[in-house]
Each structure stands twice: as C-alpha cells, then as structure tokens.
Amino acid sequence: MTAASDLPSISSTTILSSDNITLSAHQEQDIKTRAQIEKIENEIKANQKLTSDLIPITELSNLYLDNNATTSTTIGDGGGGGGGGVNKGFLQGCEYLATKYTNYRAIRGDGNCYYRAFLYALVENLYNSNNDPSSSSSSSELKRISDYINSSIDVVVQRGGYDRFAIETFHEEMVDLLSTITEEKDKKNTTDDDDSDSFSKIHNSLNEENGTSDYCVWYLRVITSTILKSDPDRFVHYLNDGSGSDDPTSSSTNSSFNTYYYTDVPTYCAREIDPMGKECSMVGVLALAFQITVEIEYMDGKELDIKNNNNNNNTNTLIKHSFGGRLHKEGGKDGASDGDNVKSSSALCITLLYRPGHYDILYK
Amino acid sequence: MSPNLAAAKRLRKELQNLERAKEQDPDIFLIPDGDNILRWTALLKGPCDTPYAEGVFQLAIDCGSDYPLSPPKIKFLTKIFHPNVHFRTGDVCLDILKKEWSPAWGVQAACRAILALLSDPDADSPLNCDAGNMIRGGDMLAYNTTARMYSVENAMFLAWPTTTATK
C-alpha cells in the first residue's frame, strides 16, 4: 500500500465520477445497435432453418412481388432489395432462373450461408453421385473428397497454423459426416429403399443447431484460411474486393461495425474467415472451390435486356461464373473462368444462387 | 454429439494442454470451477509498465453450451479502471470476445488478449468513458494515477497460486 503515497494527489470528484457512470451518446447507440442486431439474429434463427426443404423455383419471385414487411427477413443476409423499382430486375432474374432450374434450397442468412450452401450441396452431390450408371467413377469422388478431408488436418496444422487441439473436434465431425454418407449410400444400394428417406437422416442432422452443420461450416472456414495462407502471393491482391458485390445495399448486419483495409493474408483470415458469421467474399469463394466445381448464378437486381437476344450473351441472362474444380490440375491455370469452358472438368459440380449478401442452392 | 458434451470435450482438451505447457504463460492462471468445466476462474498478473503492474486480477469465464462456436463470456471480478472494462459490471469490450471470435482460440488465448488489452487500452471504444476520455484527451497522468489507485485498492490482495515462488 506504500505505492499510494507516491501518487500525485487527485481530486476526489474525479474518482467518484467513475462510480456513477453516465453513458456517452455513442456508447448508448452502440448498445442499442448490438441489441437490435441480436434481435434480428434471433428472429432469423427462429424463422429460418439452417437448410430448408426443396422449394419450387417459381416461388422465388414471390419474395419480390410485393413489399410487405416480411420480405426483407425472408431474403436473408442482404435484407432485400428495398424499393419497388429494384424488384423489376429481380423478377426478370427469377423468370430466367425458372427456365433453367426447378428448385432451390434456402440457406439461413446468418453470415455462414456460402459455407453452409457449399457443405450441403457437396454432401448431397456425394450422396447422389451413385445414381449414375458409371458408379465406379462417381463413388471414387466420395473417396477422393474423404481422403482429402481425412488428411487435411495435418495440412491445416502445418500451413494454417492452427492448434491441433482446437480443430480436432471440427475435423472429426467432418470425417464422421463423410463416413455417414458412405454408410447411407451402402444402405441405399443394398436395400433399394426410397432415396429421399435415407437422405433425410443426413438432412436432419445438418439442421441441428450447434451441431454437425455448424461444426463442418467452421472446418470449411479453416480449410479456406489454410488455402489462402498456403499461397498468399496469389490471393493478397484480392483481399479488399468487398463482399463480392458492388451493391451498396449489400452491407450486412455482420460487417456493419468495422471495415478494415487488409494488406496481409493472415490478418484477413483471422478477421474475415475464421470467425463464424462473417460472410464469404470472392477471395474465399475462389479458395474454397477446392477439388470441385462451383457454379454461381448472380442475381443482383440489374434489369435484363431480354429483347436483345442476338447481342452480347451476357445481357439477357444472369451472369454465371464457375470456380475451381479439377481445373487446378489439368490446365495449370487456376481460379475463375467463364462458365462453359470448365463444365466437364469435375464430376462434382454444385450450383449456387447469389443474391446481394446471400447464397442459396439451385437444382436442375 | 450434444452441444454440452462438445463444449465439455473441447474444454477438457484445453485443460490438458494447459497442464502440459504450464510455463508458457506465467502471467495467466486458469482453473475450472469444481465440477463444472464450462465455468473457469482466471487470474491475470497486471503487465509491467502499466498502472496494473503487481496487481492480481480475478476473472470469471463462462462458456455456453455452444462454446467454442461462440465466445466465452469473460468478466473482471476484481475492480479495475480501464477504458475497455465496465467499471461496475466488469464486462470486457474486446472484438475477439464478440464478432471476431474464432473457435481456434481457447480460454487461454482469450486471457492473453485481455492481458494485451491491459497494456494497450483502446480509448476509442470505451466501456468506461472516464478512462477513455482521459486517454483521448491526452491526460495520461490522470489515467495512470487513477488506474494505479484502483489497482492498489483492489488488486493487491490475491496471492499468486503457485507452489514455487516466482518472485
């Protein structure tokens, strides 16, 4: 207690004021904002399944028909298109999608939607891959992905710089999920049961809160980070491209507090990839398209030039990009390229629908 | 796997890790509360060259059943005057304990981050506005002496729980 006597004297009022803290306006606002975000998050949690059942693609346009209050919450992370004028482009986009796809599956808009859509579509593809007559090659896809995931933990520890104890549980969950697929597939082949019934077990486990889906979503984040950290020179220039959209309305609840300018990959991974609930940006999409092809239809609300058929082919359809797949190995050239060139590069191909700030799964 | 079980399993791993590498963080002491591994008590040594030096601060760590997907809730039980710690409740304002939390971290990494916060207060997002205003206003003398006074009054009573004296 002798240290106290060395201190310069301070007036007692300075100290007392700390006891009756009055909140600054800024702080009060911050608390209110946090409370509101929490409320929205809880609403989303209560109203949206992690991964919905199949929904006819024709119902997608209902979200854009009238601007009733529920519209914004059903759309997801992006919070909807806003005013009536914007909706025309979306409605055209829905019409176009209906000509190419039959169904979509809504993913919860909690900031994890890209990873969750990727996970679910991958699992479903691996499960269904056996339906092909050439089953030998397609079941090897399941083995290929399983091998990749099984051995990934060493890579993630060495190159990603993660503590083994921290990621073990997540890795195990992902390995378990893949072996469940193998088991269920075998069961399906031997018993000749109805497909949808045996997959519903996987579907249900992927809808448990704080369960398989979340654990695997985070493991996919770890893999994404590791791929980025393994090749920083390739990715470092694309860290600040925003959320994959130049739509100013797409800033989400999750990133509204802080925006950073990134100059190095590890910081980017720590702030944007590793935390749950952070949306996947283009650079993450690029990195995660490992071993399989990811096609994304971009529906950003821009009006389509439907009459002008013979012009540039991008004006009357939604823009579609394909990422990754086996392109890495075959061409020596990696990353994004125009859709049609890579169609056949991998037997595994998932198709996602992008709307500002959100991803869902599309079905043909 | 039930969420509670997952959280407990993970924390047991963290505990094993802590016991293996005890010397890694000599300024952090962590122990689970009795039979509930989801609740921990932490002791932090105030960093040198800060007004918290020589103080021993007690914190309560509360891991929910969704840990480690969600961050642990961490509170100072020892009163502390710091811009990012609520003066009455002991709540800590730290990005990695909120939106920037990653399941890759654990309770030890969280404590490390809090130690870093003691050395390097962030006056721009204050939970204790008085402390924040002193630093923002450039009045480091006021901040240092006030923080020091509260350290002397509140943080000098806990003995560091090691068998071998570290001093």
Characterize the structure shown.
- The complex is a heterodimer of chains A (364) and B (167).
- With 364 residues, chain A is α+β, with helices and mostly antiparallel strands.
- Chain A has 15 helices and 7 strands.
- Chain A has one domain: Peptidase C65 Otubain, subdomain 2 (3 helical TM bundles of succinate and fumarate reductases), CATH 1.20.1300.
- In chain A, strands 1-2-7-6-3-4-5 form a 7-stranded mixed beta sheet, with helices on one face.
- In chain A, α8 runs antiparallel to α9.
- The N terminus of chain A is likely disordered.
- Chain B has a single domain, classed as Ubiquitin Conjugating Enzyme (Roll).
- Chain B contains 4 helices and 4 strands; from the N terminus they run αββββααα.
SS element count, helices of chain B: 4
Alpha plus pi helix count of chain A: 15
Spans of at least 5 consecutive residues with low confidence of chain B: none
CATH superfamily of chain B: Ubiquitin Conjugating Enzyme
CATH superfamily of chain A: Peptidase C65 Otubain, subdomain 2
Q: Please, what is the average pLDDT of chain B?
A: 89
Radius of gyration of chain A: 24 Å
Integer count of domains of chain A: 1
CATH fold naming of chain A: 3 helical TM bundles of succinate and fumarate reductases
Q: Greatest interface and its residue counts?
A: A-B, 43 and 42 residues
Give the % helix of chain B: 25-40%
Strand content of chain A: 5-15%
- Biggest sheet strand line-up of chain B: 1-2-3-4
Assembly type? heterodimer
Whole-number total of structural domains of chain B = 1
Class derived from helix and strand content of chain B: alpha+beta
Radius of gyration of chain B: 16 Å
Organism (chain B): Fragilariopsis cylindrus CCMP1102
Pfam family, one (chain B): UQ_con
InterPro entries (chain B): Ub_conjugating_enzyme, UBC, UBQ-conjugating_AS, UBQ-conjugating_enzyme/RWD
Keywords (chain B): ATP-binding, Nucleotide-binding, Transferase, Ubl conjugation pathway
